[in-house]
Amino acid sequence: MIRYILRRLAAGVVLLLVVTMVVFAIFFLVPRLAGIDSDGLAARYVGKSPSPEAIAAVKERLNLDEPITVQYGEFVSGLVMGTEYDSGTDVIHCDAPCFGYSFKTNTEVWPQLVDRLPVTGSLAIGAAVIWVVAGVSIGVLSALRRGSLLDRAAMITALAGVSLPIFFTGLVSLALLSYYWPIFPPGGSYTGITENPLAWAHALVLPWVTLAFLYAAMYARLTRAGMLDTMGEDFIRTARAKGLPERTVVTKHGLRAALTPIITIFGLDFGLMLGGAVLTESTFSLPGLGKFAVDAIRGNDLPVVLGVTMLTAAFVVVCNLIVDVLYAWVDPRVRVGA
Amino acid sequence: MTDPVVSVNDLRITFPTLEGRLTAVDGVSFEVPAGGAVGIVGESGSGKSATSLALMGLHRGTNAEVTGDITVTGTNINTASDHRVRDMRGNDIAMVFQDPMSSLHPQYTIGNQLIEAFKVHRPGSSVADARKRAVESLDRVGIPNAAQRINSYPHEFSGGMRQRALIAMGLMCEPTVLLADEITTALDVTVQAQILDLLDDLRSDLGMSLILVSHDLAVVAGSVDEVLVMQTGSIVERGDVRDVLSSPEHPYTKTLLAAVPRVDVSRAQRRAQVREERRQPISEEQGEQAKRAQRARRRADAEGDARLGGAAAKPEKSEADAPLLSVRNARMRFKVRGGLLGGASDFYAVDDVSFDLYQGETLGIVGESGSGKSTLSRMVTRLLNPTSGQIVFEGRDITRLPERKLRPLRRDIQMIFQNPYSSLNPRVTIGDSIGAGLRVQGENDTKQIQRKVQELLERVGLEASHYNRFPHAFSGGQRQRIAIARALILRPKLVICDEPVSALDVSTQDQVLRLLDELQDDFDLTYIFVAHDLAVVRQVSDRVAVMRKGEVVELDHSDTVYESPRHDYTRELLTAAPVLDPVEARKHRAQRAELRRQSTAA
Lengths: 338, 602
Description:
The complex is a heterodimer.
Chain A lengths: L1 H32 L4 H9 L5 H11 L5 H14 L1 E4 L4 E4 L14 H36 L4 H15 L2 H15 L16 H34 L3 H8 L4 H29 L3 H6 L5 H10 L3 H29 L1 H6 L1
Antiparallel strand pairs in A: 1-2
Chain B lengths: L5 E12 L2 E13 L4 E5 L6 H8 L9 E8 L2 E2 L5 H7 L4 E4 L13 H10 L7 H14 L5 H4 L9 H13 L5 E5 L7 H18 L2 E6 L2 H5 L4 E6 L2 E7 H6 L4 H9 L7 H13 L7 H22 L5 H5 L6 E12 L8 E13 L4 E5 L6 H8 L7 E6 L2 E2 L5 H8 L2 E4 L13 H11 L5 H14 L16 H13 L5 E5 L7 H18 L2 E6 L2 H7 L2 E6 L2 E7 H6 L4 H9 L5 H20 L1
Parallel strand pairs in B: 3-8, 3-9, 6-7, 7-8, 13-18, 13-19, 16-17, 17-18
Antiparallel strand pairs in B: 1-2, 1-4, 4-5, 9-10, 11-12, 11-14, 14-15, 19-20
């Protein structure tokens, strides 16, 4: 088991390294291949009205005149060990992990990411709890009462959930439950959980439910399909033949097998969401990573975009790793096979 | 006399289908005395499984409609409450299912699944008690190191061990009746014999009643007192097993009996018998297609008789020529991962195997699962590349031939696979499946392909109009005919049959074997016939190779192998083969017990 985890960890580190290469290539190599020289590249980083001095400073700071391998080396060592920028007048330390400086605010990217993480984290965790509990239980009930009114109603709702975009459901819920009947605070209100847990939860209810609705719908359909398959398996018949009560047959024998693929998908979904639920955060004006990224893209603030991309990738890799380890625990067959 | 523990009276089970209600079981009545053993025999679709599920009340909650009376240990299963029926399942009547691969939950340990079966009926008992009981039960069914193996997962057990674990599960609460549904169908002969011996022991030791359900009369012969033969939902014959098997009355029982492959019937005898039957005039309902087939056979018969002076002489004659296929010192190595340091160790699935195969003969390869027989057949077709050794086909070394050069040869070497349910693509019509070979070999004229395929469909006993149907519309036997047509469409010289009949009922098995025999005559085919069933192999093979752990332990003319086996392992296999005569079967059982005693003493 330990060996399995170590092997998956090593694979995770390699994967992250590959991710840095791809991200680096997208931001530094591809524009160059498209014929943009180092001045042009630096100009993009400077912002709207580049002065020759600013361009030279950026070129210097990002080593844009060096060969691409050296640039990549600097980039990675900045991530791992931090780096120093010499701006001419003084030396600025950028501690690891260094994603560089935002040109908009002229502050380090990393602390800004860390600032916004709790918002996205609160949103993702709360929504995940809702969607897993709701999605799986609705899926199970639907599968057991296949063809019933409940099944049909649930599946139609699920279809609506999958097809309605968040900026629609989000805006409608805000309009109704915040402006028309002021039950929940308007968009943009966020209080840290440490400051006031009640206000924190109150402000997040609408975003949670909106986001969870989409995912719960998908998970309900997945669970339903999985349960329908599993309940037809021979081992379910064996469980019934033992004289087990139907509840045990469904939960212990049926659900356990049906959940295995859902865990895999959950790992991916959750990891991706920790990197920013772009639509939800934008709709509810929550100051999370997703909104941060969108604003950065609008302002051509490439270091920030790069930082969010890397962080998202890291989250997905880590969540996948956790899922792989969980998988070995959930499904004993994986332990020997791997 | 005490009351019977199971009594079934006028049982009727119907299922709704698109074409109205289908009657699966139609007025079945029988009784099982305390401590007695009853066998239920019939083909798939005869209603035997529906009957056994009804005994457990397992049709509840499905759309099956069950009428009639089923009384198990004094309770009427049909009218009792759900709660009462649940209490009885596993406690009064326990069922052991076929296919131990899928009947155990893959994500729980064997112990967990056994303990659960105990605790549900003994709510007051402690986990330690239940665990102790599980270890005893596993020990009872012959799982070595039961106390440790209880923590294993199903995938860590072999097929035979899983079947034992399922039986152990059935024994947890010491039920009055044990209901075993096709429990040996998926198993090797030696394991099958062990499991049947085990059931017999359990019956005498624990005084349990046994209901043994199977499609194979030979399986129930040595294990039950009374046998019921079922056909399309009704019992057509019943009686003492010795009487039914020695002097069957109903024609269906006779057909079933005749279909059972027998280890003591040689190929020559069977061929003679089949030819005799073929010469008989064709009856009306067999129709045009059979007549055409018969003409072809007559031709082949005349030819064969003239050339060989009788079928039995076949191999002697051919050996003068150069062999069609020659396998020299073939080895196949697999790396097995595992071990504490993750190092791979070598495992030879096929180890230094050599044989020659002559035009027109059939080489049977017999062995248990894991003996390397499938690996060997895959090496001959180059689906696997041998680690070392040589494969020479028609004088040409094909061992290292690149795929591009191999493709024309694929025309000459074809395979028929075991599972007719999974080896046909369900989304492709059978016409396309069969015709694909022609297409790959460069035939582009769709009309021409269709004509050839339809001809062949008729030849293998299907209809030309089946061309556009999908595999799900066919029964297991028909699918195997499709698989045969698929292999023969290119007019190969060598056909490798990998367990072609092991997934089929005995009567269907017989038909498919006959077809293979006829086709061999008509198309002058050479077969390699791989199977674990000794009797089947004997009936089709001129020569037989017995494989064990990747090696051929014995290779000779089939009569020699079966009548005077030289290797101990061959002898062991032969005593394990099920026999039809109940008296003989019990004698074999005693022999096996003796062999076991010797091996434990040694």
